[in-house]
Design goal:
The chain is built from two helices and eleven strands. The strands form four sheets. Strands 1-7-2-5-6 form a five-stranded mixed β-sheet, covered by helices on one side. The protein has a two-stranded antiparallel ribbon with strand order 3-4. The protein starts with a strand and ends in a 19-residue tail after the last strand.
Length: 154
């Protein structure tokens, strides 16, 4: 499966874990670009991703929760343009920083495993995160899709 990486957890993704690429459109970012588009596409919690003027691609996806979203990517090099055009109709895994390792227990969202709560020493069973693969109760970090607590309570 192809992967599309995001530098932050964006609200437009709605916690979706995969998406089908529906269309690829050329997009020029300049003074005439609607600010609403830039706000939608670049806003994440705590900031906005900077886009300079230039030639881009607008990738239009339908996520696994049936929620559509788009993302703006550079149109260079030309091999990237061909790659995305040739990938229309294919499913992409969505990768965000939330998929990275937890600093305290080295748990990787995506693995089913037993964990130990470092505060209490209690063994914790893994539970299925409804938005992203697997998540561990008692983990000091969350996967941003639900608050993990000891005993599996949400």
């Amino acid at each position: 499966m192809n992967t599309i990486k995001f530098s932050h957890e964006y609200p437009k993704l709605h916690g979706q874990t995969s998406a089908e690429l529906l269309a690829v459109r050329p997009l020029k970012i300049d003074a005439h670009t609607p600010p609403e588009l830039l706000e939608y596409d670049t806003t994440y919690e705590g900031g906005r991703y900077p886009l300079r003027s230039g030639e881009y691609l607008q990738l239009i996806f339908l996520g696994n929760l049936r929620i559509p979203f788009c993302t703006i990517r550079s149109a260079y090099p030309p091999s990237k343009v061909r790659y995305y055009h040739n990938s229309v109709g294919q499913t992409f895994a969505i990768e965000t920083p939330e998929d990275a390792a937890c600093e305290n227990c080295k748990h990787f969202c995506g693995f089913k495993q037993m964990e130990i709560d470092f505060d209490t020493g209690e063994k914790m069973e893994t539970v299925q995160c409804q938005a992203r693969t697997w998540a561990t109760p008692g983990c000091a970090k969350t996967c941003n899709h639900y608050q993990r607590k000891a005993g599996g309570a949400r």
